[in-house]
Amino acid sequence: MNKLFRFLFALLITLTVACGAKGGGDTAVSLVDQASPVPSGTNLADAPRIALVMKTLTNPFFVEMEKGARRAEMEFGINLIVKTAAQETSIEQQIEIVDELIQEQIDAIVIAPGDSLELIPILKKAQDAGIVVVNIDNQLNPEYSTALGLTNVPFISVDNRQGAYLSAQYVSRQIIEPGEAVIIEGIRGAQNAEDRKLGAMQAFAENPNLVMVASESANWKIDEAYTVTAAIMAEHPNIKVIFCANDMMALGAIQYLQEAGRNDVLVAAYDALAEAKEALRNGTLQATIDQQAAEQGYLGVWYALRALNGEELPTQTLVDVILVTVENVD
């Protein structure tokens, strides 16, 4: 790596904003200060090539993640390659994408994996080929990673359990008479989906007026959530609250509730997409969580650059979650 990039790396390291450092190599961060852009006219022919591999661009969350990565591309003067699968369930396609990037001899891969287990073997192949791997959004399974020898992969995300807890707690506290609660999960086996389920379960369990009667997966999809909500409501008409593990599923659930004339059901969600914010304003959604997708994308690229420079990185970095309701929606 040339002297310009070494200088920029050193500068960036001094610009880190870290708060509340945790033990065991974990770091909590709120935001990273913007570094000075690479001077115009700089020759970037030998700039690092970093790939951002996401689940899909059909979910606005990943559109925001790409925006953050593009900001890093402009500031740091790297060559960013963005690859996505067709759907969030297209795990085999993500594996094929990583394999293609290995053949292209990319310098680093920043990946938001659709599954916590199935991507590990191909990422181990990438690491064996000398490619830096950075994990964002959904955590790769630590035990399986260790078993296969995939090591020193920094993880950047949020505390998904805490975020889901805050969202579900907001609606749970409004239930003061006996009622039933439901969770609509993401892809089972994905760590972020499992953590969000646990956070919502914790919040619902704290309210003695609520009984959780169902927890079903809609695979992060709006249409599947519509169908799942219809089936659950038919079986459990006394439902008072629904927690959806992402906004897309919440929009599907809300669509069904509106068509069924059920304006007595409180819905909480996760992601703070523009559509969800509009639902907060019109009262069909009560809470969601901003997990700062753009900052995750930005940090992922920045960490990849630091790793390419030989810097030892934190094992886990958590970006703040923000509860968004009608009181603070922008």
Task: Kindly describe this structure.
The protein has two domains: 184 residues, Response regulator (Rossmann fold); 131 residues, Rossmann fold (3-Layer(aba) Sandwich), CATH 3.40.50.2300. The N terminus is likely disordered. Helix 7 links the parallel strand 7 and strand 8. The strands form three sheets. A seven-stranded parallel beta sheet has the order 1-12-6-5-4-2-3, with helices on both faces. Strands 8-7-9-10 form a four-stranded parallel beta sheet, with helices on both faces. It has a two-stranded antiparallel sheet with strand order 11-13. The longest helix is centred in the N-terminal third of the chain and has 17 residues. The chain is an alpha/beta fold. Helix content is 42%, strand content 19%.
Question: Roughly what fraction of the amino acids lie in strands?
Answer: 15-25%
CATH class of the largest domain equals Alpha Beta
Query: Number of helix segments?
Result: 11
The parts where pLDDT drops under 50 for at least 5 residues are 1-24, 28-42
Tally of extended strands?
Answer: 13
Q: Which structural class fits the helix and strand makeup?
A: alpha/beta
Radius of gyration: 21 Å
In the CATH scheme, what's the topology name of the largest domain? Rossmann fold
Order of helices and strands: HEEHEHEHEHEHEHEHEHEHEHEE
The largest pleated sheet is described as: 7 strands, parallel
Query: What is the count of distinct domains?
Result: 2
The CATH superfamily of the largest domain is known as Response regulator
Tell me the strand order in the biggest sheet: 1-12-6-5-4-2-3
Average pLDDT confidence is 88
